[in-house]
Q: What sequence folds into this?
């Protein structure tokens, strides 16, 4: 408890770290709000414009598309049935977001990447998965097929219904990346902890290493202290975003708290790792961490939202190893999707990433003697 | 007296550079041992290696009869270290710094509070308890550094150049504090390149250079190891070649040197040199402004043993 309390005190009194973790995200959020508030008032969510070229009739798909094109608050698609030539012209003129050619299979064609294309892709992927599952089950299990049909009928009633949100807001992605970035800023605390516990990183660390208090205890108490500090700053940011700037989170508070807790943990482990790997001055390490966090946030769409979708389509693995993207995507999944599958995938990857980074940091910290100080 | 620290054949290399070269050292209980050597002679490396912070290539280190390892927490409890560089937290005030480091050793709050207060009194920081380190002068900061290293009342204390860049008042305070700790029962290993400090407080002195022990003993023992017995300097009114000529006939004189109006004489012995010199001065009717004599210093010992100055 003694080491924990003092480590907590040390972290809370570190003005530089507190600025980056607590003040800077609030400033950035305010700038985002100022920049996007005008945009939001002019740009309500537009349903994705889809052209359908029916070379072969598909009753199931027709029903689904009709359901999703109903003119109400939750309208996801704006569908029109055209010829292939017309569709190509519409796409070139950017009057549609994409088109689907319906024959024995479904072929999607896009010109750009973005939220509209992601929605269309998700609808078609989901339709294909469902029909494939139905076909497979019906061949082997009649009762199972009936129950699946029943389940799908129920599901279709709220398919892609948004989570109590009156209208979808594309700019929330920017705020989500900000949350992701703030999680990475937990790295400042991780960095500080590694510096305070390793004899070759600071004189204070040298003093710690000659004391009878074990290194494990120092790292554990330090990590808990760092987590509490960063999570507190995260909650302040969330409160500011929700109550101050009215950013939509889809009434999923407990999930958001879980996600940001894991994200914060990953951030701290990244800072720990940077602290353990590099033998530069602490200021240089801080710069490395800041630059990495901003770069990961950039790749997640903080500056150009479409970059997220480009990476998702062309280099998906980059999205899966980018913790900021995982956090952004999980929040995005909570906001847009009625199921938690995508959210949980992101959370599990994040958790595995955090554990992996912890193991690497622990292995690096295991060296108890140094070659030089 | 029992050895509290035994180092045998310790060798530590940094690539091609041999920092500690088959280094042997014994420290007896209750003594203040001075580890004297020029900058870069391996003193700090020696301390870091003893504390199990650094890998070493050969040799053994035993403290209180047990092998020292990174996880020898029972030994670490009895050791206090004051590093050459100040190792305190800028975010904590004087009292909190001492309390934090003391708390790594002493779990009992009441006892810790008493120890903290005693350490503060020892280094004379009572009026500065609420000060942050950046508000302290260099000397006061060094005192805080010492308090952080010794507050838990260790039996064996390593002080690695604790008076570097310290004002005379703080230096005096620090040296007195070290003597007090020793009187209270602590064994002390004191490294320095200030020979005057080592002469003043150490019971025994180990002189090291290039990672090797080149001589050890008490102050007098070390000075008796060398040819030089006494140094004399005469300030004369003008160049006195006849005096130089007469002095060179004396078999007890190692060398005579004239620099402008100063004549430096080095004697082999330290008995009756003044009497002989006075006779010559009277006989040759030589007028002089002043004359003074000196015992050899540790620098002379180092110079004679290594051919270079201690502060080179």
A:
């Amino acid at each position: 408890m003694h080491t924990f309390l003092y480590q907590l005190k040390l972290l809370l009194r570190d003005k530089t770290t507190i600025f980056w973790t607590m003040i800077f995200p609030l400033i950035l959020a305010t700038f985002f709000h100022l920049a996007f508030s005008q945009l939001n008032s002019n740009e309500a969510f537009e349903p994705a414009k889809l052209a359908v070229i029916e070379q072969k009739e598909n009753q199931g798909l027709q029903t689904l598309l009709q359901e999703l094109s109903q003119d109400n608050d939750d309208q996801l698609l704006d569908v029109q049935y055209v010829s292939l030539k017309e569709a190509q012209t519409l796409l070139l003129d950017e009057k549609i977001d994409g088109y689907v050619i319906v024959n024995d299979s479904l072929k999607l064609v896009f010109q750009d990447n973005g939220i509209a294309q992601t929605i269309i892709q998700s609808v078609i992927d989901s339709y294909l998965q469902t029909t494939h599952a139905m076909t497979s089950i019906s061949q082997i299990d009649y009762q199972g097929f009936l129950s699946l049909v029943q389940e799908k009928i129920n599901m279709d009633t709220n398919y892609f219904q948004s989570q109590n949100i009156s209208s979808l807001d594309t700019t929330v992605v920017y705020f989500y990346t900000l949350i992701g970035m703030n999680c990475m800023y937990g790295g400042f605390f991780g960095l500080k902890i590694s510096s305070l516990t390793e004899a070759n990183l600071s004189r204070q660390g040298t003093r710690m290493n000659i004391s009878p208090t074990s290194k494990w205890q120092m790292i554990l108490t330090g990590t808990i202290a760092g987590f509490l500090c960063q999570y507190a700053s995260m909650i302040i940011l969330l409160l500011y975003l929700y109550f101050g700037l009215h950013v939509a989170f889809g009434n999923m508070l407990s999930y958001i708290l879980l996600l940001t807790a894991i994200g914060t943990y990953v951030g701290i482990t990244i800072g720990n790792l940077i602290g353990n790997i590099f033998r530069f001055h602490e200021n240089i390490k801080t710069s490395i961490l800041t630059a990495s966090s901003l770069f990961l946030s950039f790749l997640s769409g903080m500056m150009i939202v479409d970059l997220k979708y480009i990476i998702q389509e062309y280099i998906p693995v980059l999205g899966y190893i980018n913790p900021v993207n995982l956090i952004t995507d999980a929040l995005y999944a909570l906001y847009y999707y009625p199921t938690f599958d995508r959210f949980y995938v992101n959370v599990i990857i994040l958790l595995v990433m955090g554990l992996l980074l912890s193991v690497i940091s622990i292995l690096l910290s295991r060296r108890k003697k140094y070659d030089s100080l | 007296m029992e050895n509290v620290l035994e180092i045998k054949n310790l060798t530590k290399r940094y690539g091609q550079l041999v920092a500690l070269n088959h280094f042997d050292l014994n420290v007896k209980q209750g003594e203040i041992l001075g580890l004297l050597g020029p900058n870069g002679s391996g003193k700090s490396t020696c301390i870091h290696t003893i504390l199990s912070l650094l890998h070493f290539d050969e040799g053994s280190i035993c403290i209180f009869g047990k092998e020292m390892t990174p996880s020898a927490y029972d030994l670490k409890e009895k050791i206090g270290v004051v590093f050459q560089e100040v190792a305190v937290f800028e975010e904590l005030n004087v009292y909190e710094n001492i309390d934090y480091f003391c708390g790594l050793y002493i779990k009992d709050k009441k006892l810790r509070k008493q120890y903290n207060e005693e350490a503060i009194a020892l280094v004379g920081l009572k009026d500065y308890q609420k000060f942050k380190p950046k508000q302290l002068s260099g000397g006061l900061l060094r005192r805080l550094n010492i308090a952080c290293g010794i507050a838990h009342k260790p039996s064996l204390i390593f002080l690695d150049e604790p008076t570097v860049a310290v004002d005379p008042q703080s230096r005096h305070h620090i040296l007195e504090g070290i003597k007090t700790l020793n009187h209270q029962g602590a064994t002390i290993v004191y490294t320095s390149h200030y020979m005057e400090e080592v002469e003043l407080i150490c019971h025994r002195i180990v002189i090291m250079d290039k990672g090797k022990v080149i001589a050890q003993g008490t102050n007098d023992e070390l000075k008796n190891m060398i040819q030089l017995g006494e140094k004399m300097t005469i300030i004369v009114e003008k160049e006195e070649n006849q005096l130089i000529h007469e002095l060179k006939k004396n078999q007890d004189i190692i060398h005579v040197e004239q620099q402008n109006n100063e004549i430096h004489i080095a004697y082999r012995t330290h008995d009756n040199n003044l009497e002989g010199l006075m006779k010559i001065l009277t006989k040759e009717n030589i007028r002089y402004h002043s004359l003074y004599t000196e015992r050899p210093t540790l620098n002379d010992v180092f110079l004679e043993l290594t051919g270079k100055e201690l502060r080179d």
